[in-house]
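Please, structure for the following, as tokens.
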Amino acid sequence: MGILDNLFGGNQTKGKRGFKQVLTDTGDFTTTDHQTLGSTSEYHTIAYYQVPAQTKVRVGYGNPDQEEDMGRIYAYIRTGEATPDEIPGKLRIIAEDYNGFRKRVVFEHDENMLHGSLTDKHSQVPVPEDSAFIAEDSYIKVQIKPDSTHNTSGAGNDNVGWADTTESILKVPITVYA
């Protein structure tokens, strides 16, 4: 029966193990520098990752029953001002198809609870492997609904800053199936 399943597009990752990866704002995500966050009632996409061809991914990794093996998220979203300030609000990760028609919230949490310590995983929020695949060419998007507005009125004034890792830091665990 296993051969027929594969011939007709069945679960082709059944029995295969994915490998762990952590997506970062400095190497994997496409981010927008000086992005306006002008509304506290809607989510704004601040970073996205497009799944490579011939690959499927799941957000998170590890089993929820084995806490030591789970992936951890770290997010510290800050303004791009001369003295960067944190942008508190609700942070979420969504899976979105290539056309933007189907969207599914995979993770949602308060931003100010997601940056305990970069070196102590026990102060970070665990993210076990999600059950649904995100297919090739689809997106993993990071969005924020800020508690207060942040409008761009010129370089360096009240905007999300992705200029370097001293401003905003983002690390999202995923499991990759090739």
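The first strand starts at residue 19 and ends at 24. Residues 17-177 form a domain with the Jelly Rolls fold (CATH 2.60.120.1170).
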